[in-house]
């Protein structure tokens, strides 16, 4: 089967261009599977209209109850499918292209949903919620460094983040049969690694001063994770 997939992503002024964690998850997945795809860049204010145009489902509801549309989304020209939500996209790719490397173990969708639910609270110190939501809704091009709190609050948030990553480091250590695992499931890459690497890459790209500190955490685990997945970062 010939494959052509369109990935809908949000652009930035950064040289890497791809920058948002959720769309980075899908980019990792597509590159890992070796599937042919192109990127259509969608400015943040246009996400809802483009999603409706291509038939992408909303991924939640706004506070007033209206549908909320987010990226990533993919449109698979070989099957006609349009999928939104990065984890649902990963499950679709495994199901539709079984001859490519798997992202999730068989029947593992529920497990990875639970993984996301467990990890999101651990990442909270990265995002001062109200400011992040307000400015992101205004424009994707805000000064992203401003997302990091400063002063004593910033130091406390960063220490909390390090402690939280320490919990995830324990998960990796438990993944190896003969010692600390390189990946979440030992020596084999899975979607959980890409999921977490997307947030680590976000820090590296947009908060470089913070990255200089983070890359030393837990024996350099997070720098090593990015190095191992670097070949799947390609932006096309």
From TrEMBL:
InterPro entries: Glutathione-S-Trfase_C_sf, Glutathione_S-Trfase_N, GST_UstS-like_C, Thioredoxin-like_sf. SUPFAM superfamilies: GST C-terminal domain-like (SSF47616), Thioredoxin-like (SSF52833). Residues 10-101 form the GST N-terminal domain. Pfam families: GST_C_7 (PF22041), GST_N_2 (PF13409). This is GST N-terminal domain-containing protein. The lineage of its organism: Eukaryota, Fungi, Dikarya, Basidiomycota, Agaricomycotina.
């Amino acid at each position: 089967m010939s494959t052509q997939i369109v990935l809908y992503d949000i652009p930035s002024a950064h040289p890497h261009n791809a920058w948002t964690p959720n769309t980075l998850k899908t980019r990792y997945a597509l590159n890992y599977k070796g599937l042919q795809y192109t990127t259509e860049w969608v400015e943040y204010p246009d996400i809802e209209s483009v999603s409706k145009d291509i038939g992408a489902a909303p991924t939640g509801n706004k506070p007033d109850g209206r549908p909320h549309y987010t990226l990533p989304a993919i449109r698979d020209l070989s099957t006609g499918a349009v999928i939104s939500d990065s984890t649902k996209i990963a499950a679709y790719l495994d199901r539709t292209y079984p001859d490519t490397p798997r992202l999730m173990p068989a029947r593992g969708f529920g497990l990875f949903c639970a993984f996301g639910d467990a990890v999101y609270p651990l990442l909270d110190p990265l995002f001062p919620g109200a400011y992040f939501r307000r400015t992101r809704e205004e424009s994707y091009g805000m000064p992203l460094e401003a997302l990091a709190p400063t002063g004593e609050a910033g130091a406390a948030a960063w220490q909390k983040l390090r402690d939280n990553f320490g919990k995830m480091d324990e998960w990796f250590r438990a993944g190896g049969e003969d010692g600390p695992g390189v990946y979440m499931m030992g020596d084999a890459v899975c979607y959980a690694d890409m999921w977490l690497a997307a947030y680590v890459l976000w820090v590296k790209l947009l908060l470089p001063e913070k990255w200089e500190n983070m890359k030393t955490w837990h024996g350099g685990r997070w720098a090593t994770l990015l190095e191992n997945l670097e070949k799947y970062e390609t932006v096309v």
